[in-house]
Amino acid sequence: MNTNQNNTLSNSEPAMAGQGRVVILGAGESGVGAAKLALQKGFDVFVSDFGVITDKYKAALEKLGVPFESEKHTEELILNASEVIKSPGIPATAPIVKKLKDKGISVISEIEFAKRYTNAKTVCITGSNGKSTTSLLTYHILKNAGINVGLAGNIGNSFAAQVADENYDWYVLEISSFMLDDMFQFKADIAVLLNITPDHLDRYDYKLQNYAASKMRIIQNQTHNDFFIYCADDEESLKAISGLNPEAKTYTFSIFNAVEAGAYLQVNTIHILTEPNKEFTMSISELALQGKHNIYNSMASGIIAKVLELRNETIRESMGSFKNIEHRLEHVAKISGIDFINDSKATNVNSTWYALESMTTDVVLIMGGVDKGNDYNMLKDLVKSKVKAIVCLGKDNKRIHDAFEDDVEVIVNTFSAEEATQIAFHLAKRGDAVLLSPACASFDLFKNYEDRGNQFKAAVKEL
User: How far apart are CA 259 and CA 253, in angstroms?
Assistant: First the structure.
């Protein structure tokens, strides 16, 4: 059972504008944005962060005139809240969150709060892998089509801050399972589920079905006027959907089988059909995003575009001109005939599987970090066939050694991006690729995956 579903009733009566005290837990992008919107709507606002607040967000809170505290949670300043907006990074098991729930105080996400104050429609994209790429591609297509659209959620600027400052007609929202856990009345006009693979299981009692149930909250509150788009090839998604009977109009996408409504691949051509006799086709060689996983991402974005009745010429141009995000299969340099590829955003096993699957040369793989309950079995065949050496980058690499010691001849431990890059360079030969695709979170040695990717890129440039 989803750990937060019991709290739905306590969230059914939101605090009204201008009434009550809103406490925000976490002073990152979403928290500071929520503070801005809550202040604008007349609430008594307080921000509390158990960690260190960065100078950027401290300055933003000071400019707003919002009282805040850093490196502590003062209970008497928090447990008197009418409602609490919680950062997605704070688990439901955190002591302060448990105390709030025990008192019956509503705990919601920034996304839930911000949606109360906008009439804009939303495209909400979730999935274990491909969320950022698909969100950015969708935003790119909509913007090119002249739609007044914002980008928020797990990417870009805070949704709440944009609701406070902007007046968009549509938002493309990248939505994580952590956000979904604290969303109750929220409704997606267009909901997209890309895939479900084991990720963040440490937050879900190490049960895939709990994580999958969180992902399925993307369709909660949808009606027959809304749209739900999902991958017909993804076994876990199909399992999670079975028995739910989504009310929204559904479209599927597949690279193996033709579908009646949605998108499919046939002889290297994508076919998208959302209405009878209105088909869009595009050769996969024309797509800006290459690789099997990106065919799925392009299909999902293409269906969204067709649901919105955008012109075929706009869709084709946008899907052919899009530039992917930093730290996702990003080509850094070619040195002595060796390609260096930064896939630091691959923080789970499935992302690394996609990266390896797209490689056409022998690979020296840099992987490791904070293991989130990873099952490395799905990588074994690809590692055997494509990986000549593994360079571990993390404080504890035992599980990687145990998983692959019979599959590759060389597994080396390193403790900095510079050391990992230099050793990988020496292990590779002309024609090989050095791929940073960690399959793990970064917090043991780095601030975040961006920091890890940037340090890797800097190390490559020093070679």
Answer: 7
Judge contact between 228 and 251, C-beta under 8 A. Answer: yes
Give pLDDT, residue 3: 34
369 annotated ligand binder: no
CB 123 within 8 A of CB 189: yes
CB atoms < 10 A from the CB of 237, how many?
A: 23
Tell whether the torsion through CA atoms of 400, 406, 408 and 410 is positive or negative. positive
Distance of CA 427 to the CA centre of its chain: 32
Cα–Cα dist 275/417, whole Å: 50
- How far apart (Å, rounded) are the C-alpha atoms in residues 284 and 294? 10
Q: Which of 347, 359, 417, 414 is nearest to 388 (CA)?
A: 359
Q: Is 130 annotated as a binding residue?
A: yes
Q: Which residues pair with 21 in a beta bridge?
A: 44
- 298 labeled part of a ligand binding site: no
Residue 56 among known ligand-binding residues = no
What are the structure tokens assigned to 266, written together?
A: 């046939």
C-beta of residue 25 within 8 angstroms of C-beta of residue 97? yes
**131 known ligand binder:** yes
Output the pLDDT for position 11. 36
Q: What is the per-residue pLDDT across 208-220, written as a single tens digit (0 to 9) for each? A: 888 889 899 999 9
> Which residues of the chain carry a pLDDT beneath 50?
1-16
- pLDDT on residue 5: 35
Q: What is the CA radius of gyration of the chain?
A: 22
Cα–Cα distances in Å, from 147 out to 19, 25, 139, 310, 318? 34, 34, 9, 10, 13
In this prediction, residue 374 carries a pLDDT of 84
Q: Do the Cβ atoms of 392 and 400 come closer than 8 Å? A: yes
Token pair recorded at residue 404: 């692959």
Taking Cα atoms as reference points, which of 380, 455, 390 lies closest to residue 427? Answer: 390
DSSP per residue over 372-438, as a string? SS--GGGGHHHHHHHEEEEEEESS--HHHHHHHTTT-SEEEEESSHHHHHHHHHHH--TT-EEEE--
**What tokens were used for 27?**
């002073």
Q: What is the pTM of this model?
A: 0.76
